Structures are given as structure tokens and as C-alpha cells.
Amino acid sequence: MQYNPKVFAGKHAQDIIALVILANRTIGKGIVRFLPEIKNEETITTISGDIEWVDYKEDIKETDLAGYEANNSLKFSDRTVNPKKIMALDGFSMEDLRNSRFSEDMLKGAANITSNKFEQTVIAYVEPRLGKNFEKLIWGGVSATDKAKIAASANVTDAQKAWAAGQKTTKTTGLLAAALVAATEDADGKVIAVSPTGTIDASNIAANYKRIHSALPVEVSGKATLFVPEGDFALILQANDNETYRDKFTVSGDDIETAVVKYLGMKIEFVPINYRIAGLQTDFVVATDLLSDASSFEIGKVNNLGDKKFGKAVAVVDTTLLLPQQKVVMV
């Protein structure tokens, strides 16, 4: 007897893939710019700089333009996103469900380990795992091609090169790596590099955050968000427990999932990274396509003889970091 897997594809997979992608703090809380319907390569244009008002002149000649341009600093920057196909796979044993609430839907008898809510059970099981892995990918992945570009670039610091070399090699490239690749192409697009002072702990976390805060360019000062490793949340709570540092951080709530944390007015978000980066939230772009034909979610048995099951998700994703020269990075 052949076991036929349950496959959700196309539009039928949209709700499932959406749940998976949203099952993490980065996308679920909307702390980055999320583009859910990118079919193919798409260019995103950003504008930075300023333009001044000047005295009106009726008779403007072509030769006058250079003088007006000298007073302005507008700069256009293009970045492209082209979602690439990725896959996530997880296995589990239905036997584990005997001790869960889903056992109520199983037929009596030791041989019966299939729940009437089988598909819902699998989706509930794998959703947070795939969501978390998706989050790690968009922040830290580096493709082999981009690792080589970063390693050979004179516009990337040694610390940043070491970081990129130490990341997992993936088909897609995450947000920080995307910025470092941009620097290889344009020296004006380098991120602002700040080195940490010592190993960051509860006693020096405020001082290191201040180094990042002080390096923020004027264009984003007062509006930037600082993205930090999830472990920093505990360090901040410990720092606040010390009377010397108590007034450094503003913390509302004691749960990392819901707490609002600020340092000198700068909002702090906790994500699965091993570096720290500050900038405008809207410049951190994650693109996918929930309606792509490539999107699917499959549930089946690993083999026809055993009872081991699997959940497999296929989707597309790409990232880019706009205006990297306005980002402060500490690695």
C-alpha cells in the first residue's frame, strides 16, 4: 500500500507559508520592511540628502544649475531584490503526540498514532521552527559568491570580513552581508564601522551602545532602531539591576517578545544575530512571494515502512539593506 503525502501548493500554500514567515519576531512584529509579493527582480529606489529653498530667480540659465546643485545633497540609490528558491525540512514522530492534546483525536489502541487533525498538527509543530530558521537566514546568511566578494574588497573591514567568513554558506544573502556586498561595488556605500570595547556584558553594554549611538549620521539620529542579539535582553535587565546603570535603559515589560526597550531614545529590537546594527527600520528590506508557484508545504511519511513523518516548506526570499552608509555596524 502506498502512502500519499498531503501537498499544499500555489494559492493553497499562501496561508501556511504566511504563517511560517510570520512566526518570528522580525517579520511578525514588522520591525523590517516586508515585501510579500515580489514575483521577480525588482528595483527599490531610495533618496537621501537635503534640498534648500533659495531666492527666486526668473531668468534661470543652464549654467546657473551647478550653483543651485552645490547647495543640495540629494542622492538616489538603487538596490535590487530577486527572491531565490529556498527549502526547509523537519521531521518528527507522531508517537510524541500521545502526550499532547492531539491524542484526544486518535483512535483507541496502541497501533493508532494518526490524529484526525493530522495536517493541523504538523503545521502547528513545524511553524515556529521554520519561522525561526527563516529569521536567522534573513539576518545572517551569506552566499559563497558574496563571501568571496567581501573577502576581496578593500572597502570592508577585517572584522567584517571575518564575520562574513564565519557565517553559514547559504543560497541567499542576509541583510548585513547585502550591505557589505554593496560596499564592494561602491566605496561611498560603506557601513559605518564601530568596534566593541571588550567582550560585551552587563557592565559595559551601555558604553558599547553609546559608541553606536554616537556614530549615527545626522540623517537618522533620533529615528534609528538598534538591532542586537537576543542575549542582549538579559544583559540589559542585569545592567538595570545595577544602580550604576539603572537609568541607562528604558524597559517596559520583562518578556523579550513584548518588551519595549530604548537606549537614549533609540529603540532596541532583539533578533537572532551575532552583531549589532543601527539604522532606519524601513531600510531593512525582506522580499518574498506568498503566491509564487514555488511556494508549497508538504506533509508525508519519510518512508512507507516507518511511522516517521516530515514537514517540508518551499518558498522564495531575498534581502537588501538600503543606504548602508547610514548604518552603524558593530561586529
Can you describe this structure?
The chain is of the alpha+beta class. It has one domain. 28% of the residues lie in helices and 25% in strands. It contains nine helices and 15 strands. It has a seven-stranded mixed β-sheet. The longest helix is centred in the middle third of the chain and has 23 residues, at 118-140. The radius of gyration is 24 Å and the shape is globular. 33% of the residues are buried. Mean pLDDT is 83; it is low at 109-116.
Major beta sheet, strand line-up:
6-15-11-7-10-9-8
* Total helical elements: 9
How many separate structural domains? 1
Q: Overall pLDDT, averaged?
A: 83
Distance between the termini: 55 Å
- Biggest sheet details: 7 strands, mixed
Topology:
Elements: E1 6-9, H1 11-22, H2 25-28, E2 33-35, E3 42-48, H3 65-69, E4 75-81, E5 84-93, H4 118-140, H5 144-152, H6 158-166, H7 175-185, E6 192-193, H8 205-215, E7 225-229, H9 232-240, E8 249-252, E9 260-263, E10 266-271, E11 276-279, E12 284-288, E13 296-301, E14 308-321, E15 328-330
Parallel strand pairs: 2-12, 6-15, 7-10
Antiparallel strand pairs: 1-13, 3-4, 5-14, 7-11, 8-9, 9-10, 11-15, 12-14, 13-14
Helix pairs in contact: 1-4, 5-7
